[in-house]
Amino acid sequence: MMRGIHQNFDQQQAPAFFARGPSPLARLSFFTALSLALMATDSRLQYLSGVRENLMTLLHPLQIVANAPSDLYHFTDEYFSTHHHLLNENARLKKQALMQDIALQRLTILNLENTNLRNLLEAKQSLLETSTLAEVIHVGRDAFTKKIIVNRGKNHNVVTGAAAVDAKGVIGQVTRTYPSSSEITLITDKSLAIPIQIERNGLRAIAFGKGRDNTLDLPYLPANVDIRRGDKLVTSGIDGVYPAGLAVATVTEMRTTQDSPFAHIVCVPAGGIENNRQILLVSIPQAELETVNETVVSEKSKPVSSSTAAKPVTTNTANEKPAQEPPLPSEKTTQKTTEKPAPKPLANDGHRPHAQQ
Amino acid sequence: MLFPWSGLALTLRPDFMLLVILFWLLRAPNQCSVGTAWFMGLWIDLASGGIFGQYALAYTITTFFAVIYQRRLVLFSSTQQLVYVFSLLFLSQLILLILKTFAGKEFLGWSYFLPSITGVLLWKLAVTFGLNTGRHAHGN
């Protein structure tokens, strides 16, 4: 018995004056100071983004190794899936493909028609967005921010600001890109805002993540706003970051109180925020930003009558009327010229306003 | 149990990294120290996309308390050790909470501290299945 205790002590009680290095307290103060310095540098100055990128490249193989067991599980699971199950799935997919084919045909015709109409109006063409399929490789430890890491990055032409979408709707935005992975901030994160539109009445607003409970908030809307429970929110696309018309959320709660001039609106995201392994990263080509700027420039030089055509955002009937009228009396023209700079700030919204991190 | 974590599992997910660090601190105190914890914390910061140094600082302070009590800790009974491990896990979460509060984040509710409990349960499970956590029972 005594021998056992002595063995333990021999192993651990090395004389304090050699082979122990600096005292724990010295180490504590050194590393605490180092951490604080790092935190200050990283949050206030932008020096460490390059370092982060390089370290992330080092970390990537580790993440792949860490994911290997689960990948193996999914692989074997797929391999041993039963004949019956596969047949069922095949039949279902065939049916789905058929139905979607029909919808797609209609969509093609509509697209063509839309293009022609836009040509007639001399409005800017909506460009086709590019998309990349990515898979979640890591869910961040941090409970305070909602971030996930996916396995596609700069090498796969993923750009910062791209929208992350699953089959049901938007789930987030790419906020950082590394060579072979990228970081997605989910729409439920408190720092992420997303411009939306109510599908029913076209009302525009901005939705903010709540940071907890996986819900979204629609703040700063007046108490008498026309939003009901069950309303669907889709992306408005006026920010030039998200493609228009993607499902975002459904309103689950709309409450007004006597003591607040604002409505209290809570929405639940449409996409499977934390459920999917596969995510589609959709980005609007950079070319569109340039064309937006071009239209602004050409508008300034163009006569008054065409200025309404490129004003998709403020389509008031009052504004459209003068465009169809023959040459106007002078006082009305001055009124129009004061309105002319209006499209400019709207078009400038194309510069990713909320892509900042 | 498999990646990716979601829903309730994400709330309950224990801090594996800190558990591993604490284990090695008790098991091999000459190979593993405050510096190791700081370094591993830095990797966690990197992987979770947060500001550099948050986890590093939390791990540094936590392991400091593990190191100064290490000699006594290996003599503790199993239950005493569990309580101590729990308080260490709790401490690391508390430090993170304080750091995040400074950064303007708000408290997520008491479920935020659940990973400490699942962490200590995992520790208990590991000890039950015969993992030697550096504790030496007298008379063995």
Beta-strand percentage range of chain A? 15-25%
The largest contact between protein chains, plus residue counts on each side, is:
A-B, 57 and 52 residues
- Please tally the β strands of chain B and state the result: 0
Query: Span from first to last CA of chain A?
Result: 61 Å
| Rg for CA atoms of chain A | 28 Å
Strand-residue fraction of chain B?
A: under 5%
Describe the protein's architecture and organization:
The complex is a heterodimer of chains A (about 350) and B (about 140). Chain A has about 350 residues and is an alpha+beta fold. Chain A has 8 helices and 12 strands. Chain A has helices at about 1-10, 25-45, 50-80, 85-120, 285-300, 315-325, 330-340, 345-350, and strands at about 130-140, 145-150, 165, 170-175, 180-185, 195-200, 205-210, 215, 230-235, 245-255, 265-270, 280-285. In chain A, the strands form 2 sheets. Chain A has a 6-stranded antiparallel β-barrel. Chain A has a 6-stranded antiparallel barrel with strand order 6-7-8-11-10-9. In chain A, strand 10 and strand 11 (about 265-270) form a beta hairpin. The radius of gyration of chain A is 28 Å and the shape is globular. Chain A starts with a helix and ends in a 9-residue tail after the last helix. Residues about 1-10 and about 290-355 of chain A have low confidence and may be disordered. Chain B is mostly helical and about 140 residues long. Chain B is about 65% helix and about 0% strand. Chain B has helices spanning about 5-10, 15-25, 35-50, 55-70, 70-75, 80-100, 115-130. The relative contact order of chain B is 0.16. The model of chain B has no long low-confidence stretch (mean pLDDT about 85). The interface between A and B is large, with 57 and 52 residues.
